[in-house]
Amino acid sequence: MSMERTKAWRYAIPAAVLAVLAAFFFRGLQLDPAYNESPLVCQAAPEFSLPDLADPSRRVSRADFAGRTVLLNVWNSWCAPCREEHPFLLELARIGVPIYGINWDDDRDKALAWLNEVGDPFVASAVDEVGDVAIAYGVYGYPETFLINPEGTILVKHFGPLTPEIWAGKMAPAMEAECAVD
Amino acid sequence: MRWLPALMLLAVSGASAQVDSVEGFADPELDARYRDLIHTIRCMQCQNQSIAESPSVIAADLRREVRSMMAEGRSNGEIREYLASRYGDFINFLPPWKPSTWLLWMAPALLMLGGGVVFARVLRARMRQPMEKLE
Q: Could you tell me which chain B residue has the CA closest to the CA of A33?
């Protein structure tokens, strides 16, 4: 009699295991595999000094951001999602958000022609020919956008096109929140 | 469909030959170290390929960065650590041993142990059975 009861109880084990697995898989389906939490969030934005796209004899550096909240946008002329987000960058520039660009894996003439065609929202674009600055910022795709506060701390690292939803839902709240640099 | 296996073979060989022969080091020892290392670094954009296998421009940029760090005399550990500090531990195919990965690393041993316990108990129960029937 007690033997029977023990056996019945055992049938619950596979069901419980299945339930746990299903819970994990269900959660997994809702996660974006392209999204990775960056270790740079709440860290100081890496220093850099690169040639200016418009005038290579001049330099663009992190010091140029000084004391302002800025966007740093990694772009190039052949990336389709860059074109997709571009009207919104122009809109942000129009309302007075300082946007700096890092032009990566591009050709100078094509980059300039592209800006000429679609409009230039950037205060300045730095040309990262070697790619070590983009790598120092942990960039693994185009476009990526960083929100950097007046103290030079990275508040948000966004992978993919910048949208009004990301701006209002992710970046605006981050500007209000505390972010301590280790 | 007789051409299919040949085509598949071509695709596979194409993928493994992404690192062009110009890349790398003249010193054979350094070159071998470089080729081993880039196979253990994830292409973040393509997720399940290493930067050695990926044809993407960003993988090429990362390989160049690895080469320049090696040329500066940095060790594999230092290079891995630097990349993890920028991209997160996900960039290394071998996750580090730390509290958040203890369960991950221990999982095979724990599963073996759990399986062994269940196996032993089932065996013991079966060994008892004929004796009980005899009674």
A: B47
Instruction: Confirm if A147 and A175 have CB atoms less than 8 A apart.
Output: yes
Would A169 be classed as within a structural domain?
yes
Contact of B30 with chain A, judged by CB distance below 8 Å, is answered with no
Rg (CA), chain B: 24
> How many residues can be counted in chain A?
182
> What distance in Å separates the CA atoms of residue A82 and residue B86, rounded to the nearest whole number?
22
**Closest CA–CA distance from residue A160 to any residue of chain B (Å):** 11
CATH code for the domain in which residue A126 is found: 3.40.30.10
Tell if the CB–CB gap between B65 and A135 is shorter than 8 Å.
Answer: yes
Name, in order, each residue with C-beta under 8 angstroms of A54's C-beta and a sequence gap of 6 or more.
Answer: A112, A124, A125
Structural domain span for residue A79: 49-176
Whether residue A72 is contained in a domain is answered as: yes
Residue A143 lies in a domain: yes
Instruction: Collect all residues of chain B within an 8 Å Cβ-Cβ radius of residue A105.
Output: 57-58, 61
| Tens-digit pLDDT profile for residues A107-166 | 999 999 999 999 999 999 999 998 899 999 999 999 999 999 999 999 999 999 999 999
Enter the tokens of residue B57. Answer: 């421009």
Amino acid at A101: G
CB contact under 8 A, A137 and B86: yes
Q: Count the Cβ atoms, other than its own, within 10 Å of residue B43.
A: 22
ipTM for this model:
0.80
How far apart (Å, rounded) are the C-alpha atoms in residues A82 and A73? 10
Residues of chain B positioned with their CB less than 8 A from the CB of A135: 61-62, 65, 83, 86
Q: Domain total for chain A?
A: 1
